[in-house]
Each structure stands twice: as structure tokens, then as C-alpha cells.
Amino acid sequence: MNTGAYAQDRNFYIFLCFGQSNMQGAAPVESQDMTVNNRFKVFQAQDCPNLNKKKGKWYPAVPPSCQCTSGLSPTDYFGKTLVDNLPDNITVGIINVSVAGCDIRLFDKDIYKDFDATYKEQWFASLIAGYDGNPYQYLISLAKLAQKDGVIKGILLHQGETNAGQEQWPSYVKKIYGDMLTDLELNADSVPLLAGELLAVDGNCCSRMNPIIRTLPEIVPTAHIISSEGCTGLDSAHFDAKGCRELGRRYGHEMLSLLGYEAKYPKSE
Predict the structure, then answer these.
(1) Percentage of the residues of the chain whose pLDDT score is greater than 70
(2) Which terminal CB of the chain, N or C, has fewer other CB atoms within 10 Å?
(3) What DSSP state is assigned to residue 237?
(4) Model confidence over 94-113: pLDDT tens digits?
(5) Has residue 239 got a pLDDT over 60?
(6) Are 102 and 162 in contact (CB under 8 A)?
(7) Lowest mean pLDDT, pick from 74-83, 116-125, 180-189
(8) Contacts of 121 (CB under 8 A, 6+ apart)
């Protein structure tokens, strides 16, 4: 398979990010989050006049990374962790297409229309409309544009609250991951899938899903699970800013290891 032969810069590492509300960005953005190394970029997914950003262009990855008014995402500290540990000649870019409240099958290109009304509320319809009604294809189209600039090195997933308790979830993810690899002409061995656990604190909504998430590598050998143990919450489903930062660092630490770097583990705050 083509693993990025047409990329302009092989030192530009690109990561695709998708999921539901925590990946979209549910935690409040604080002042400390706004300082970003210029080697960490975001490929803007939507036109955002409020941010002075246009779809399909690279910008310094100052949050929000997903939608025009979303909050802090694990992607933010994932990228910061990478640039803090990778050689100075490597740039990191993320593309984040996530939908709060979605069923994982909204990203299945063959059946997504069956899941575009998981919630009947207007806010949910508006999120999907912001991705032209098809979040999967929207992400793939952005990724193909981004491949002209760099090389896709990994895929990040944080999802499961809406599918909590569904033992078929790993098979749903396997299908979506396989479609992404095929549609972007990527090889699983060089593009791992990093899947994060859900919030696990007292009174949480969905941590019963974590044992199911942890089985994903049994059917997707290139999947790696990111622990949420000890990450703090904002409510019953969402990480707070501190928990989101820590989870993002853990994604970053895992990816660094997979890239062959012996990274120092960033301090928790």
C-alpha cells in the first residue's frame, strides 16, 4: 500500500482524531492551554470566523482543535507532548472531526445514515450538518488534502459513552479503522490506532465500557489502549481540564513509544 509517497514533507507527522464529546473538547480552555509551540499545527476542519481560521488550512494548534466553540481536547496535550519530545525538525499536525453524543457507527461509511439522529435535539443535527452530513467522509477528505503536506502516522479515538456496555463496539471500530486505512492507502503497521478509556470516577456514567475498550487489541493488533486511571472529571461523563491534559499526555507518550522514542513522561499538574 501507499504509505505517503506523495507527501511533501516526511518530517511532518499528521494524526487523525475522531470520537464524541471528550475528543471534540468538553473541558474548559484555560490560559495555560493557549501557549503552543509553532511546530504543533491543526488542520482547520471548519470555517471559524470567530477564530479567524478557514477550513483546510494549517494553523498553530491553539485550542479549540475541533469546532469553532469546542473546548479542550486530549488532542491538545497529545500534540504538545509530541513536540516536546521529538527532534526539532519534526512538525506535528492534527485533524479533529468529532461529534458529541454520537454512536461510533456514525463513522461507519456504510451505515452512518442510520445513526445521524442518535439524539433528536437540534444541537446534534447541527454538529452533523457542520460536517456536510457525513463526518467520516468529511474526515477522509480533509486527510487526503493534508497528505499533500505530510505523512499520517496514527489515528486517535475517544468514544464509547453512547455505546456503553455494547460488546460489539470493538468490531465496529475495527470496521471503521479498516475503512480509513483503505480509503487513505495506509498500512496498519505504520498507522496505529490509539483508543482512550472513558472517565472512571465515582458516579460516572460509562466506565463499565472500559473493559470492553480494553479488548480492542484482541481483534485490532495495531490498537493501543490509553488508560484513564486517575484522570479527573468535570461531571459524570467528561474529563475536566486537568484530566483532559493528563489523558492527552498519555496518548502522546504511547505514540512516542510507538515511533521509537524513549520519551520522558511529562509531569502531571
Answers:
(1) 96
(2) C
(3) S
(4) 999 999 999 999 999 999 99
(5) yes
(6) yes
(7) 116-125
(8) none
The verdict on pTM exceeding 0.90 is yes
3-state secondary structure the chain: CCCCCCCCCCCEEEEEEEECHHHHCCECCCHHHHCCCCCEEEECCCCEHHHCECCCCEEECCCCCCCCCCCECHHHHHHHHHHHHCCCCCEEEEEEEECCCCCHHHHCCCCHHHHCCCCCCHHHHHHHHCCCCCHHHHHHHHHHHHCCCCEEEEEEEECCCCCCCCCCHHHHHHHHHHHHHHHCCCCHHHCCEEEECCCCCCCCCCHHHHHHHCCHHHHCCCEEEECCCCCCECCCCCECHHHHHHHHHHHHHHHHHHCCCCCCCCCCC
For residue 120, name the pLDDT band (cuts at 50, 70, 90).
Answer: confident
Residue 263 grid coordinates: 520519551
- What does the alpha-carbon distance between residue 269 and residue 193 come to, in Å, rounded to a whole number? 27
Q: What is the pLDDT of residue 52?
A: 97
